[in-house]
Design goal:
The chain has 154 residues and is mainly α. The relative contact order is 0.17. The chain is 43% helix and 0% strand.
Amino acid sequence: MCDIRIDYDTSWNRIHWKSLRASYASSPFFEIIAGDLLPFYEKRYKFLIDLNVDLLTYTLKILGVAIPVRCSSSFAPILSDIDPRHFIHPKKEPAVVDPGFKPEVYHQVFSDRHGFRSNLSILDLLFNEGAAALQILQKSLRTSSRGSTSDYSC
């Protein structure tokens, strides 16, 4: 993981930022967060892990959550259903993968046309709800059967 380099042959970062702006410019908290977020898309990171760790650290900071971000030096296999890597699956509904998490409905930019879309991204939640984002995440946790969130690291 630590050796994966970012390819800047295409301006993916500029395209990604334009997509975020186009999708969320009218959201209530976009302008407040955009100034802090834009530098992540302007900086030319060499390694993907560095970008990911910086974005995760920023996200935790803006949520007001003090969880240290650590990277392991070796791959650890997924051994149980409470390993957080198990909770994200592109082809399964979140409730199937993690029955302890039921996304709380919140206002989204296009909800008037498309209804509520769960599990879009943390940026969707932050742009639309700002400081209330952490409370919405906490309400989405239906059980305490998984481990402590402070046990999770990248």
